[in-house]
Structure prediction request, 394 residues.
Amino acid sequence: MSEAQRTIYLDHAATTPVDPRVVEAMQPYWAGAFGNTSSIHGAGRAALKALEQARSTVADVLGCNPMEVVFTGCGTESDNLALRGAAWAARQTGRGSHIITTPIEHHAVGHTLDQLHDLHGFELTVVDVDDYGRVDPDAIGRAIRRDTGLISVMYANNEVGTIQPIGEIGAIARRKGIVFHTDAVQAAGALSLKVDDLNVDLLALSAHKFYGPKGVGILYVRRGAELVPALTGGGHERGRRPGTVNVAGVVGAAAALKLATENRASESARLPALRDRLVKGVLERVPDVKLTGHPTGRLPNSASFALKGVEGESALLALDLEGICVSTGSACTTGEAEPSFVLTAMGLPREWAVGSLRLTLGHLTQPEDIDIVLDVLPRVVARLREHAPMSAMN
Ligand code: PLP
Prediction:
């Protein structure tokens, strides 16, 4: 058996393999129809046609007008454009400089808002989440001020999989006339992306999370939502994201999003059964372990745990030696274990929050993978506990 066949990949929230049908859809746009979409000659027009077709495909999935779809360079860029663009526009139009968010956003959102605060003087209100990582829409409502210009709440959390009540929060924002952004990077392929049901004005996606290519992001921008471009340059993407368009990439992103939407029902039926068997097995076989995130209101492919007294990164590396790929939200950047900021915000003490472990299932996951993990993980955790007792981590 080859090395690749023996690897059990349980990190689909980090990235996914490109679907062969997506590779095929992209193929003509590397060396054949390679034109620049801004060129007005035949080669350029062929590329532009492919770009606009991709935009329509994405718009169909989101239930919006193609003009409201902007292609970017990644999910991070979509979030940056949304937040910086909407914050600056809110200030420019006199709407205000106050922004509401949560403590468990991905760094693409959290660090962008921190910079808006630190360098540009925007005021932030960070609304707490509960023990499951869920934000209360009423708490968002209570945080709204006369000068609130923007609300940003992620659709589903990347570490613990908890799904937020985006439609309800969006309804509150809409009643108050406040621009509402959601980072939906982890939601594509698992949850509905219909922007009108979600009441969102800005929604960010990243193609490599749903079996599309890396380096392509999508940003939905509701008609009328003001956005100051974060990049300045030519007039691409109606001036909202200048830069020569990655035509093969956007064609791949659109094909992948369409496939992910078509496969949503079947994957949402297959994955939770496997995921639940994994969760049950881990809780039964590993002592001092907690399921993190909401027990039911979570992404269908997401199993996440906190291991008491075990560093998440050590568990990740030990599992990697056994050919199992997983993730942790607890980094070990300075030689000392850093607790996961998501688990900390959910109220877990340090001795648990350093032991974040995320296993995310996907197209590659087979039932026998779960059996292997349930055999290996208890041994790995027992060994780590034996060799690195908790006191060593304080
Ligand atoms: N937002 C969330 C919730 C994510 O999980 C990620 C990637 O892990 C991003 C944003 C960033 O996306 P990208 O890797 O395309 O920049």
